TrEMBL record:
This is tRNA 2-selenouridine synthase. Residues 12-136 form the Rhodanese domain. The keyword Cytoplasm does not apply. Monomer. InterPro entries: AAA_SelU (IPR058840), Rhodanese-like_dom (IPR001763), Rhodanese-like_dom_sf (IPR036873), SelU (IPR017582).
């Protein structure tokens, strides 16, 4: 059998298959990309064993665990682990601390399925600690450049063209504004941090010592930018991306109307998907009603409703351009203009998309 490992760096750099034996409730609070949850105990069993441990001690808790996970239940779980191990012979298993649960899983696999499978020493807790340290070291050791610009200038498009770009919104599964929700849910905060740390680890291993991030607020939807990274962003140099109002409107139309509608339709079908998309768009505008003011919100909402009605009838999206342009000019542009002014002393380059991409590529040399 391959040896047990504590080489967390190699595990994450190699996208090694991971068998997570923690209970589903633990897995749901935070996990690693691609890990498969095949628990030793389900949530109810884990709760019972935990209560027994508190009341009667470790030996009694272990005995109860063996009683709860026995017979057909035990056989089914061993079969699932064995299937995973055979499908992923280069993988590893782990529990929360690399202790009893992973050791039992490992022993049952070997003794009852004839499969020798290594575990990760220190388990989830140690791997999570390694990723948090990866984030902290990157903030301390790497140069950051913050990419700013008005809404719709294509900041995400720029990041996707840079080998050293970090797309925080992609990891948060949210576009970062009141209209930023996708059709599917955001990851848990821990999942967001883990994914970001793994990307940083891989980029640093590839030789990158500087990173470009978009100028985000502390919260991207329900995900919070790690405190150390956010603080570093507030003191880092800024590159400001510009584009015409026409182009910005077209990008907003693409991202927040065409693509978002397509997400809902893929998930729910044409009729129900469009209904949910329309509800999401209206709710997004309503979320900033107080900031817009009653009259302006009502005016924009009427234009949006007409555009949605036409889209529902014919599929045409052209009417959405009116409310998008008004929202940019009347709401977002003044807000971002103030932010630009507050960052003026940190702005080292201003340009349109191709010039900004070329500048940022050159700046990493």
């Amino acid at each position: 059998m391959r040896d047990d490992t504590a080489d967390y760096r190699a595990l994450f750099l190699g996208d090694v298959p991971l068998l997570d034996t923690r209970a589903p409730v633990e897995f749901g609070k935070g996990a690693f990309p691609g890990a498969v949850n095949l628990p030793l105990m389900n949530d109810s069993e884990r709760q019972q064993v935990g209560l027994c441990y508190k009341q009667r001690g470790q030996d009694a808790a272990i005995a109860l665990g063996h009683q709860l996970v026995s017979g057909a239940v035990k056989a089914g779980r061993i079969a699932a682990w064995a299937d995973f191990a055979r499908a992923h012979p280069d993988g590893y298993l782990y529990c929360f601390r690399g202790g009893l649960r992973s050791q039992i899983t490992q022993a049952w696999l070997k003794d009852e399925a004839g499969v020798a499978y290594p575990r990760i020493i220190g388990g989830y807790k140690a791997m999570r600690g390694f990723l948090l340290e990866t984030l902290e070291r990157a903030v301390a050791e790497c140069r950051l450049v913050v990419l700013g610009g008005m809404t719709g200038t294509g900041k995400t498009d720029v990041l996707r063209r840079l080998d050293h770009g970090l797309d925080l919104e992609a990891h948060a599964h949210h576009r970062g504004s009141s209209f930023g929700k996708h059709a599917t849910a955001q990851p848990a905060q821990i999942d967001f941090e883990n994914r970001l740390a793994i990307e940083i680890l891989k980029k640093r291993a590839a030789g990158h010592a500087s990173f470009v991030v978009e100028d985000e607020s502390h919260c991207i939807g329900s995900c919070s930018v790690p405190v150390g990274l956010f603080q570093a962003m507030q003191r880092s140099p800024v590159v400001w991306l510009e584009d015409s109002l026409h182009n910005r409107v077209e990008r907003i139309l693409r991202d927040y109307v065409v693509e978002l509608c397509a997400e809902f339709v893929r998930l729910h079908g044409a009729e129900r998907g469009f209904e949910l998309f329309a509800g999401r768009l209206r709710q997004s505008l309503d979320n900033i009603a107080r900031r817009l003011g009653g009259e302006r919100h009502a005016r924009l909402r009427a234009v949006m409703d007409s555009a949605l009605a036409e889209q529902g009838r014919s599929g045409a999206v052209a009417m959405h351009r009116e409310w998008i342009e008004k929202l940019l000019v009347e709401y977002y542009d003044p807000m971002y203009g103030y932010q630009r002014q507050s960052k003026a002393d940190r702005i080292g380059f201003v340009g349109e998309l191709e010039d900004v991409v070329a500048y940022l590529r050159g700046a990493q040399q």
